[in-house]
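#struct-help
A.M.: can someone run this one for me? Single chain, 81 residues.
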Amino acid sequence: MANSTHMITDVTTVITNGPNTATQNLANVSSGQIMDYPGNVNLCLTKLQELNMLLAAIIGDTDASDATNLALLQGVFNNLN
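D.P.: on it. Structure tokens below:
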């Protein structure tokens, strides 16, 4: 599968879709820990949104003459959205 180029949108879609039965069974296997699958997906979204806000602030304070770093930061920012 290709790498995501819209991480926040993709994780939001996972939340909307919800886990299927096979995923629920893996998350709740009796031989190991029970995972809060929906909770962890929501936490993942929250962290991506937080990263998005932090990157926006960093990009805003990165001078255009620092072109290499600015391009790298904008690339990461664009992949989040």
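A.M.: thanks! Residues 55 and 72 are 11 Å apart (CA to CA).
D.P.: also worth noting: The two ends are 19 Å apart (CA to CA).
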